[in-house]
Amino acid sequence: MSAEPSQSVRPSAQLASGTPKLQGSAQIEKDSILSVRDVTVGFGNKLILDGLDLDVVRGEILGFVGGSGTGKSVLMRTILGLNKKRRGSIEVFGRNMDTATEGEMTMVRRRWGVLFQQGALFSSLTVKQNIQVPMREHLHLSQRLMDELAILKLDLVGLNPDAADKFPSELSGGMIKRASLARALALDPDLVFLDEPTSGLDPIGAAAFDGLIGQLSKTLGLTVYMVTHDLDSLASVCNRIAVLGDKKVLAIGTLDEMMKNDHPWIESYFRGERALRRV
Ligand SMILES: Nc1ncnc2c1ncn2[C@@H]1O[C@H](COP(=O)(O)OP(=O)(O)OP(=O)(O)O)[C@@H](O)[C@H]1O
Questions:
Q1: 24-111+194-277 belongs to which CATH class?
Q2: What ipTM describes this predicted complex?
Q3: 240-245 and 87-92: which strand pairing?
Q4: pLDDT 10s digit of each residue in the chain, 279 long?
Q5: Calpha distance 227→68 (Å, rounded)
Q6: Does the Cβ of 65 fall within 6 Å of ligand 1?
Q7: Which candidate, 137, 132, 129, 181, places its Cα nearest to that of 159?
Q8: Is the CB of 68 under 6 A from ligand 1?
Q9: Paired strand residues for 193
Q10: pTM for this one?
Q11: For residue 77, which atom of ligand 1 is closest to its CA?
């Protein structure tokens, strides 16, 4: 995945609106549904994250950026419990992930959805069966009800019911992203993690996907944690942006605040030649 800001200029990229009213760090901590404190992750003798802090506020769309290989996916996987940390704590929905009981962990997993890079649909399952994987794991529903729910999820992400019986290999890139999002929404989550959701999409498809994320966030009250390299996504749907660098969150705030930040990487990302071309 390239670390370069997107070259494309979207048809209707604008500054995010509807930013939650945040009054300083105390308010952010109070409204936080994901709280990361002092998290340190390494592999062998290579330290990737060192004492990282982060809060994600209920209802916001947080864009997460950083140079290639800085650890954006590692952090997301650590939050999801797929990577071990060496130090620190992670609280999701008020539950400390180290001390939560198995039952509490199951409840937390039911309340989040994940869209991995490239969609990560099971290639041997149809779209409908993919959407039903989390339902089978967590719910006890009849096949008929799960079939109805799968069609509703497809509708939610703008796919026709006839996509239900297709295999991932029969879908376009944009349809794969939408089908993956439908699977991430299978259990009506409060929080979704999206790892580079618009990568590989053309500018019109990417703008439509951004629009979908914004609309779902608004109508379902979804909180969105989105790793992206896409400046248009950051500008059009993200309420806040976090920048990863030097093994930590270097800065977090609105796009306006990023535009004023004079850290060299942040400056070249948000005010470099490529970024300014999209203005
Ligand atoms: N399981 C692992 N074992 C060893 N090293 C790993 C492992 N997972 C990630 N890394 C290393 O951690 C570093 C950060 O990787 P990560 O995939 O999080 O970067 P990223 O910021 O998401 O990059 P990109 O924007 O290119 O996707 C890289 O140097 C990667 O090689």
A1: alpha beta
A2: 0.97
A3: unpaired
A4: 444 444 344 443 333 444 454 456 666 666 789 999 999 999 999 999 999 999 999 999 999 999 899 999 999 999 999 999 999 999 999 999 999 999 999 999 999 999 987 668 899 999 999 999 999 988 888 999 999 999 999 998 888 999 999 999 999 888 898 899 899 999 999 999 999 888 888 888 888 889 989 988 999 899 999 998 888 888 889 999 999 999 999 999 999 999 999 999 999 888 887 766 665
A5: 12
A6: no
A7: 181
A8: yes
A9: 114, 225
A10: 0.86
A11: 18
Q: How many Å lie between the centroid of ligand 1 and the Cα of residue 73?
A: 6
Angle formed by the axes of helices 173-184 and 127-138, nearest 10°: 20
130: closest CA among 119, 122, 140?
Answer: 122
Ligand 1 binding pocket includes 69 (Cβ within 6 Å): yes
Question: Does the Cβ of 71 fall within 6 Å of ligand 1?
Answer: yes
Q: Which H or E element spans position 219? A: helix 203-220
Question: Is the shortest distance between the CB of 197 and ligand 1 below 6 Å?
Answer: no
| β-pair partners for 199 | none
Identify which of 194, 188, 185 has the alpha carbon closest to the alpha carbon of residue 234.
Answer: 194
What is the distance between the alpha carbons of residues 65 and 42, in angstroms, rounded to a whole number? 20
Q: Give me the residue spans of the domains in the chain.
A: 24-111+194-277, 123-188
Determine the Cα–Cα distance for residues 197 and 203; give it in Å rounded to an integer: 13
**Ligand 1: distance of its center to the CA of 175 in Å?**
27
- Report DSSP state, residue 99: T
* Residues written for the chain: 279
